[in-house]
Amino acid sequence: MPHDGRARTGVSAPGAWEVGTAGTGSPPTEPEPVTSDRALTFAGATLAAVYAPTAGDEELQLIETVGASPEYRLPDRLSVSGGSAATHAFRTDRPLWLNAAALASYPVGAPTPPRARSASLGALPLEREGNRLGCLVVVGASADGFDAGQQRFLERYADAVAGLLLAESGRPAQPSLLSRALRGLRVGTFVLVPDTGLIEADGTLLELVGTTSDDFDGKADTLLAHALPEDMPALMSVLEPSAQAPGRRELEFRVRCPTGEMRWLSLICRVLAHTDEQAEQVLGVVTATSVKSRSADDVSRIQWLTAVLDDAATVRDVGRVAVAALREPLGADRVALADVRDDRLVVTLLDPPEPDAWPQLWRAQWRSEWPDAPVSALPTLQLALRDGRMDLWPAGTALEPGLAGIGPGGLAVLPLPAKGRVAGVCLVGWDQPHEFIPEERSLLTATAALVGQALKRAHAYDAEQELATMLQRSLLPRRLPELPGGTAVARYLPARRGLQVGGDWYDVIALSEDRVALVIGDVQGHSAGAATIMGQMRTAVRAYAVEGHPPDVVVSHANRLLVGMETDLFATCCYVELDMEEGNTLVVRAGHLSPLLRHPDGRTEEVEVEGGPPLGVLAEAEFPMTAVALTPGTVLALVTDGLVEAADLPLDVGMERTRTALADADPADPARMADALLGDIGRREDDVALLLLRYDGMTTRPIRAGWVVWRLPDAVMHARRFTARTLRRWKVEDTADAVLLVVSELVTNALVHTQGSVRLDLMLRGDRVRVCVSDSSPRAPAKPVIVDWESTGGRGLLLVEAVSDSFGSVPVAGGKQVWSEVTVPRDEPAPADSRR
């Protein structure tokens, strides 16, 4: 079975030593000389030494060595003017690489007797920011010297040593210089005993794999469990001693860290044969790489393509991988990737993206971003898609106008097969005459098959994510209402796993002109089922709230509704009703997190709210209310647990972190404040909902007056007198005729058509008088369909609507409220005398 790694014997690949580009975490703090010896051994070195100049720069003094070479002795001091390899590299600022033959013929001035015929040597200057800091000398075990990959690694090693020397200049030399420099390169080492399955791994290797020393039990299986399953066969083929050749073996593989991150690692190892003193062992080093590098051979290129397409989730991702796999390796000038949708070609990616690089017909039919053409308009593509085979057109081939100019030097048409059908087509074009060699044909065929399968998966992924996004957007508020005396903002982030749709919800419900309800909740799980229950709960809470029920009744009704549903899911909820005029709030909590407050002086606190159980657990549960007073400038924050809790984030730590962010954020812009609270939360295990309200207080405070209407024969007369007295006290007598007519009709309707208590409320806000008549009947008043001269009633509501600027009815607890608003006429200033 093919695998996504590469293994070969006896070769030290350059890519394995390109380290330091993708490591995470911090290296171990304790010196590890054993680690240094192992890593240098795999770099082809038996001995490494650092020379630093003495005062006056007349000599180089040996300050530290790692390893040992019985065949080669390094002196303690070297004259800078001498002829040794180290001083030569120091003076010229250029590395010097000597194999055994070159080392034997080196000038006699090098004080390094005796010379060993099997040894090689490298001298690398240590230089940073124009400062000559010394020289790194490495002794190699091979008479052929260091290969290119080893040289690149040792040059990076020398650069790391120079960085430490520069940082510590002017101070006494610190111990373990070479070991610390090696750890900075993120090189991990191990010794595996196959007979026992035990492995000695240093701290760097554990960090690269994504584990800690506390979680590591010394077993090889524990480390191998972090590798991706598809890379396991390649790993075992390298680590099994029975499969080992005498030389070294190399492999690039992937691991999945506990955070979900996928990381590429490079492994080199070799086998130490069994002796009387020790069992058979496998020695190896592991380094981090930013991405798996491609080699020139087609097998490695296909392996690379398979691995990268495995991580390509969207159609655009697949297109970018296809371009990277074809354009540069084949020296192509253009690559186009198109989907086949209902016998039309929809181009999803063009490289280069500039319109001028593509045919005139495409530019003439350019849509918003990419062209869209019927397959029937391109016979060449139609034939290739019908047959499902690759077509290669050499330079000078006459093609239809829709393809002319894509590849004047040669054109490859690659149908992209996927599960018995053609998912799309890829066009590869050259400007200069191109000869299609057999190796390229094989590469194009293999690439088309892999890209076609990936494109099919990407289409399914895109459709799934689009469906999830549409579902989530349809269940959450499209926009929040504008509030008098406050500003509300909300944020929602789906979980970055699964369907990316969840059960968190929020809502802002304008109950009246001066009252608003804030709701946040979380249905158990993040799936389509959780999202469906979330939508039902949000609708139910909104319906109960606008009916005028108090907060505890709203939450109790929602609880009974969820208990009665055929679901095993439960939900948490926090409901806040706020009086925008006075700043008084009533809070009800059902298994949810308590609200957070940011006071005008910057202090933050978690409101102590007596809570009830989650919704859907107990039908007769009680949900007590907690009263909280807000002052203007206070910010109220409601959050779900996805923001403050995770596998590696305890709840109390998360709440404290959110409180700190709330205190540091600028309340002048609630939107930026919400973004600051979200921060960079990385890979989300759960969806996140956040609702903020900055309470500013109402600039125009209304004036109110109320009257209980008794059911007496002259009740309407008393209501009119109360209204007239109130309007005179408010000095808005100019509205008296219209307001008195409204009061007469609404009070009469309430007394005639309903039973129970009737109440009249008057309110003056700005330039409007509002009349509200409340009764105990839930039925809204109905205007007559036909009113003729013989009708004995039905004209009252028509008169009210005629004299009112606005008119309506809303449900309230225990009945309804019919209201009307009448504008207070403004006194127009007397016109100025225009005579001169």
Rounded to the nearest angstrom, the radius of gyration is 40 Å
Strand segment tally: 34
The stretches of 5 or more residues where confidence is low (pLDDT under 50) are 1-31, 108-115, 291-296, 366-371
State the helicity in percent bands: 25-40%
How large is the count of helical segments? 21
Shape designation = elongated
**What structural class do the secondary elements suggest?**
alpha+beta
Q: Mean pLDDT, as a whole number?
A: 78
Can you list the strand order of the major beta sheet? 1-10-11-12-8-9
User: In whole angstroms, how far apart are the ends?
Assistant: 105 Å
Largest sheet, if any? 6 strands, antiparallel
Beta-strand content: 25-35%
Catalytic activity: O-phospho-L-seryl-[protein] + H2O = L-seryl-[protein] + phosphate
GO molecular function: ATP binding; kinase activity; metal ion binding; protein serine/threonine phosphatase activity
Region (Disordered): 1-35
Domain PAS: 174-246
Features:
34 strands, 21 helices, six-stranded antiparallel beta sheet, alpha+beta, disordered N terminus, 836 residues, elongated
Task: Walk me through this protein's architecture.
The chain has 836 residues and is an alpha+beta fold. Helices cover 31% and strands 28% of the residues. The chain has 21 helices and 34 strands. The chain has a six-stranded antiparallel beta sheet with strand order 1-10-11-12-8-9, sandwiched between helices. A six-stranded antiparallel beta sheet has the order 4-3-2-7-6-5, with helices on both faces. A hairpin with a 2-residue loop joins strand 31 (758-765) and strand 32 (768-775). Helix 9 runs parallel beside helix 13, helix 10 runs antiparallel to helix 13 and helix 20 (736-753) runs antiparallel to helix 21. It is elongated. The protein starts with 7 loop residues before the first strand and ends in a 13-residue tail after the last strand. The model is unreliable at 1-31, 108-115, 291-296 and 366-371 (pLDDT under 50). It catalyses: O-phospho-L-seryl-[protein] + H2O = L-seryl-[protein] + phosphate. Residues 174-246 form the PAS domain. Pfam families: GAF_2, HATPase_c_2, PAS_3, SpoIIE.
